[in-house]
Amino acid sequence: MRERTQSQLKEVLGAGAVGTLQNRSERDTFAGMYASRLARLWAVERGLVFGRLDHVDEGRLYIGKLGLTDDEQERLLIDWRAPVAQPFYRATPAAPMGLTRRRHLQTKGRVVVGVDDDLLDFDTLTDEDRATLNGEAALLAALDERRTGRMRDIVATIQAEQDRVIRADLNGVLVVQGGPGTGKTVVALHRAAYLLYTHRERLERRGVLILGPNLTFLRYIEQVLPSLGETDVLLSTVGELYPGLTATARERPEVAAIKGDIRMAEVIERAVRDRQRVPRKPVELNLGRYALTIDRNMLEAAKNKATRSRRPHNQARAVFVRSLLNALARQAAKKLGKGLIDDDELADLREELRTEQPVKTALNRLWPYLTPQRLLLGLYASPERLDHAASTLTPEERALLRRDGGEWTESDVPLLDEAAEVLGEIDEQVLRASALQAEEEMAAARQAAEHEREAELAYAREVLELTGLSDVMEAERLAERQRGEGPYLTTAERAAADRAWAYGHVIVDEAQELSSMAWRVIMRRVPTRSMTIVGDIAQTGSAAGARSWNQVLDPYVAGRWRQERLTVNYRTPVELMAVAARVLATIDPALEAPASVRDTGAEPWSAPLSALPELVKSEVGEGGKVAVVVPDALLGELGKAISDMVEGTAVVSSGATRGTTALDAPVAVLGVADAKGLEFDSVIVAEPDLIASQSPRGLSDLYVALTRATQRLGVVHERPLSALLSEALSGLPSRTSGPTNGH
Ligand SMILES: Nc1ncnc2c1ncn2[C@@H]1O[C@H](COP(=O)(O)OP(=O)(O)OP(=O)(O)O)[C@@H](O)[C@H]1O
How close is the Cα of 221 to the center of ligand 1, in Å? Predict the structure, then answer.
């Protein structure tokens, strides 16, 4: 199939860029189709075939990562997502679904290195068969494997409760609630692959978006879908949802809480209204030959008209300007002694006035073009504007929003998106004209005599300021880059560049962390509300995060969402989960930790903080990936202490970029927010008490930290444990250095 597709691609490309426009576009479409088919055929190499079904009636079927037929259309391999493959995941001895046997195949390259059978129809079994039955071997072998720093697909070992989530209906909102390690992430990814297979046409056109908590996490999961042959899915954080911006900086919890609060929607709306100004005093315009006055009545009338148009701010500006210019033109006619004028004359005068500099400046003051960036920075920078727009917040809350310039944060992105909704797009033509105008102003300033230059430049800058052009020009450059849509731009790429894109399906991971304002952005991206939301309310660490799924979803789909639960922990062994469960009980005794599926015999241990670098070294010696989860305040200090001692240590500063090496390094030192969703062979948690007290949801953070390990867990501290934690953690056997036993 690879060879055939390759030669089809070659043939199409060989036809060259000739012919009519339509010919060429057809050629591009075919080339795109063959190229992605080829990519898919190469992507499924690892574990191509992993299962066999022995049917009572139909004989043998092989299950694999994609479907294959031979030249006679005989089925060679069945795609795991096809309905006939379902018994591979769902059949049990009680409900064998027509199977006598299910076989798991382990392969290395093209060689079968192991088989593992589940015999489902006991009547056909001999006694010896029954005695050697070990259906869980494949799963347990997969779970015990050393971690590589990248998530792997689980097609060969999907469990029945997970399969139900994966194959759930596309429409509506599905919430998948499950404790740590229950496979929420990996299941969500397989669901994306399943939905693309089952609803290929609809979803390829509209695209699928997967949202994760941070860039390291996206890196961690980015290979799963390609390994299942699906390459055109957009992975993103909320910080990247506003096109042209990657916000990774994190806000202090108290600021994040305010910026994520639903009251901010109203604040933004008022901030925009506050920029549609009616000054107390009339505005005088000196046009040389005569002077005009913009009085309050004219302004109110123009503003009312613009508001009644119900268009967003930037588009309503045209209504405002036209109304005001008409009034000014009538005034000018009077001044020029023309008396009553007809419509044509009025239009001429209006257009004449439109080009007068004092008029332009006044209009820009009264109803400026605004970009979301300019609006927000203008708001944060001015206590007066904040007092006005944010009167629903307390003075303390307003003070927390104050900021001069600075980097965009993750919490700003939903506010920028909200502002973009209220402001509306700036017309392309206006953008181009204003960019041109600004360039002319700058050029004129440069040409001006030396002594005038200063003043001219200041003026040009003022024009830029007033119209918000300094970032409008940025915006235009960006728009231009995005317009270069070549024929090979994939759906995901086009969607990423378009703020108004409506996705076919959106999957939200670690969904409990998102603020109310972030949910508004996400919901705008899926008007059909076809969504999968996965998370664990007990793990909520963000101050702006969710307390219940009802609270999150009621504003959008009250009573119209369904929930599935995942109950088995595939990551954390029993011994480690016992400790985590005790911490969970301190958050709320009613919360239940998921049951672990395996034990390793390695008990969690405790040691003094001073031994940390030594212990890390010894853990590295045991092999696999090691993580040290630290309180944010100690990241620098402990990161350095460990780096000095252990080669190849990666310290993950908050707001890491996609290029981070944390996943590839033998040791990662990181805060809880960056450890969310990840897993490591061995985890050491430093100063648990400080983690628990560093934010209002600190105990949940500690629970997250304690559930990241697949094999071994240690706790190091020098501060005494608080009463709350001592019951959960103080009984751990102590360790100074050297390997743990039991593994
Ligand atoms: N059916 C399965 N077969 C093999 N491995 C599995 C299976 N289900 C889950 N796993 C493994 O268990 C680990 C935990 O899965 P995952 O990260 O998806 O859990 P999670 O519920 O998202 O956890 P958390 O909430 O802690 O982030 C992963 O290594 C995953 O590959």
Answer: 11
Residue 96 annotated as binding site: no
Closest among 120, 107, 105 to 157, alpha carbons compared:
105
pLDDT at 732: 87
Side by side, the strands of the sheet bearing 709-717 are 605-608, 709-717, 680-686, 626-629, 667-670, 649-651
485 phi and psi angles, rounded to 5 deg? -70, 100
Q: What is the pLDDT of residue 144?
A: 78
Atom number of ligand 1 nearest to Cα 156:
3
- Residue 159 Cβ < 6 Å to ligand 1: yes
Query: What is the rounded CA–CA span in Å between residue 178 and residue 157?
Result: 18
- Asked if residue 157 has its Cβ within 6 Å of ligand 1, the reply is yes
Specify whether the CB–CB gap between 288 and 356 falls below 8 A: no
Whole-angstrom distance, CA of residue 679 vs CA of residue 686: 16
Q: Is 183 within any annotated ligand binding site?
A: yes
User: Which residues have a Cβ under 8 Å from the Cβ of 337 and sit 6 or more positions away?
Assistant: none
738, 701, 742, 712: which is closest to 625 by C-alpha? 712
Q: Tell me, what's the pLDDT at 476?
A: 39
Residue identified by tokens 């994966």 is 166
Q: Rounded to an integer, what distance in angstroms lies between the CA atom of residue 400 and that of residue 403?
A: 8
**CA dihedral for 49, 54, 58, 60, sign (positive or negative):** positive
Structure tokens at 192: 């994306």
pLDDT means over runs of 10, the chain (743 residues) = 90 72 74 83 86 87 92 91 92 84 87 83 60 59 78 88 94 95 95 94 90 89 87 89 86 93 96 89 89 93 94 93 93 83 86 89 90 92 94 95 89 96 82 64 60 54 46 39 46 83 94 96 95 92 88 93 94 94 90 88 92 94 93 94 92 64 87 91 96 90 95 94 85 70 41
Residues 188, 190, 191: CA angle, nearest 5 degrees: 60
Which alpha helices (DSSP H) does 1-153 contain, by range? 2-14, 21-43, 87-90, 127-131, 137-144
Residue 2 near residue 42 (C-beta atoms within 8 A): yes
Nearest CA to ligand 1 atom 27: 677
Give the residue, out of 143, 564, 584, with the most ligand 1 atoms within 8 A of its beta carbon, to mutate for a pocket test: 143
Distance CA 373, CA 560 (A): 35
Name residue 310's amino acid.
R
Between helices 412-423 and 372-381, what is the axis angle to 10°?
120
